[in-house]
């Protein structure tokens, strides 16, 4: 094996290894390490790949471990315990995943017999396994992070990327078997790896844009709810000021009816005053976004002649607005849809704080048959989603993200959802 080829394989392997290390760190700390620090470590490994004969070659794994650990200590100091823990996790993942992928790859391509027959073949195989380890980790970590926007398109992308990587490995090893000294192979191999890395990088940016767009839309919805709620409160205050201004005159009239013992007129006049309060927001909580969504859904239920009772008992809500809007919006929409199809539809919702937990329970009437399979609600009508099928999946994800619990049960006429969320930071 020529010295130039050795430099090429060491350089490529160290670059992929470092990229994997950076990705692992970013996924295990709450902030991004500065790019200039990453560049310094990458340059060290590039220089480290150049010498032809490295003294104390048996110590290379220990030297690599030490460099990575020093880098971690420097980036997240003084939290040295966290740095050590992340480093141990990384090494466990690194060696375990490399071993598993090596066994699976060798089984698929059936090259166990020729794996150690050539140094060149062995080097290409090692880089391919390392590259597959990096790709699998990137796809998995993106899947885990982007639960809010996860879709079948992400699955399609993952399958395509893995298929391209396997095709790349097959073509590389096939050419390596036939022409191990080919000068075109390193160029072709490097080009394809760079293209795959570029695709992954662009898709990372794409996921960030989608997440930002989803957050922007949710924040816009929260702002709209809060503005509507503020306007409603403002109108109610105007009514209160008006009534307070005229209260003396109202009391004089009521007193006159009372002196005449005209209780029917008293009742009628009080009812007329009460009409001025019918649009008052009945639900007020310490969380403006929650108050806004609850009042909007309450008003919608009233428009559909649904008996709606919503009670809240919490002081300090720690759950973020995005999650609360997702849960309450979807569940109350489903409940309203179901109850509106009943002759005397009703909804009962309760939000209650119990120590460091927030419990949400929503019960409603329903008139349609409910079909459930493996926790998924399906429709009884062709082409129409079930009354509770829409949104349940998003609610489950939101609850799961917070490591909460959700319980769903129903009878022939009622539907119940109970949710318990951690209410602390």
Can I get a quick summary?
The protein has eleven helices and seven strands. It is α+β, with helices and mostly antiparallel strands and 425 residues long.
Descriptive report:
By secondary structure, the protein is of the alpha+beta class. The chain has eleven helices and seven strands. The strands form two sheets. The chain has a five-stranded mixed beta sheet, with helices on one face. Strands 4-5 form a two-stranded antiparallel ribbon. Strand 4 and strand 5 form a beta hairpin. Helix 7 packs across helix 9. It is elongated. 21% of the residues are buried.
Enumerate the strands of the largest sheet in spatial order, edge to edge or round the barrel.
Answer: 1-2-3-7-6
| Percent range of helical residues | 55-70%
| Unreliably modeled segments | 380-390
**Class computed from helices, strands and strand pairing:** alpha+beta
Largest sheet: 5 strands, mixed
The overall pLDDT, averaged over residues, is 79
What best-fitting shape do the alpha-carbon axes yield? Answer: elongated
Strand content: 5-15%
Cα gyration radius (Å): 32 Å
* Ends apart, CA distance between termini: 56 Å
- Secondary-structure element series: HHHHHHHHHEHEEEEHEE
Assembly state: single chain
Number of helices: 11
Compute the number of strand runs: 7
Which key phrases capture this entry?
425 residues, alpha+beta, 5-stranded mixed sheet, two-stranded antiparallel sheet, 11% strand, elongated
Secondary structure blueprint with pairings:
Layout: H1 3-28, H2 35-48, H3 60-76, H4 80-109, H5 119-145, H6 152-178, H7 184-259, H8 263-275, H9 288-303, E1 307-313, H10 321-339, E2 346-354, E3 357-365, E4 371-373, E5 376-378, H11 392-401, E6 405-410, E7 414-422
Parallel strand pairs: 1-2
Antiparallel strand pairs: 2-3, 3-7, 4-5, 6-7
């Amino acid at each position: 094996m020529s010295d130039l080829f050795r430099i090429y394989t060491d350089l490529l392997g160290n670059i992929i290894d470092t990229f994997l290390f950076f990705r692992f760190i970013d996924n295990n700390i709450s902030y991004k390490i500065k790019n200039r620090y990453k560049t310094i470590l990458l340059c060290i490994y590039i220089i480290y790949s150049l010498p032809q004969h490295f003294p104390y070659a048996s110590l290379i794994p220990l030297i690599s471990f030490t460099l990575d650990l020093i880098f971690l200590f420097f980036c997240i100091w003084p939290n040295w315990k966290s740095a050590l823990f992340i480093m141990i996790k990384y090494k466990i993942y690194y060696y375990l995943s490399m071993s598993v992928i090596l066994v699976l790859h060798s089984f698929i391509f059936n090259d166990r017999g020729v794996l150690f027959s050539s140094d060149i073949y062995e080097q290409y195989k090692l880089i391919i396994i390392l590259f597959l380890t990096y790709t699998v980790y990137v796809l998995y970590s993106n899947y885990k992070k982007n639960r809010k926007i996860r879709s079948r398109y992400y699955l399609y992308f993952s399958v395509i990327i893995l298929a391209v990587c396997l095709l790349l490995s097959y073509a590389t090893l096939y050419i390596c078997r036939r022409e191990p000294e080919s000068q075109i192979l390193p160029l072709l191999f490097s080009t394809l790896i760079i293209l795959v890395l570029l695709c992954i990088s662009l898709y990372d940016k794409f996921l960030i844009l989608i997440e930002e767009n989803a957050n922007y839309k949710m924040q816009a919805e929260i702002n709209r709810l809060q503005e509507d709620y503020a306007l409603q409160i403002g109108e109610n205050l105007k009514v209160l000021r008006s009534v307070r201004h005229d209260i003396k005159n109202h009391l004089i009239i009521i007193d006159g009816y009372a002196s005449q013992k005209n209780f029917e007129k008293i009742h009628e006049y009080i009812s007329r005053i009460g009409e001025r309060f019918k649009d008052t927001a009945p639900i007020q909580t310490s969380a403006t976004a929650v108050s806004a969504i609850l009042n909007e859904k309450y008003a919608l239920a009233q428009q559909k002649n649904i008996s709606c009772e919503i009670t809240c008992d919490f002081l300090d809500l720690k759950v973020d607005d995005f999650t609360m809007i997702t849960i309450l919006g979807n569940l109350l929409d489903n409940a309203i849809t179901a109850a509106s199809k009943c002759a005397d539809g009703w909804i009962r919702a309760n939000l209650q704080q119990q120590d460091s937990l927030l419990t949400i329970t929503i019960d409603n009437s329903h008139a349609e048959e409910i079909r459930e399979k493996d926790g998924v609600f399906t429709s009884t009508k062709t082409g129409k989603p079930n009354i509770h099928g829409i949104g349940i999946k998003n609610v489950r994800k939101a609850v799961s993200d917070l490591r909460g619990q959700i319980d769903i049960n129903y009878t022939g006429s009622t539907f119940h959802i109970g949710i318990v969320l951690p209410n602390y930071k």
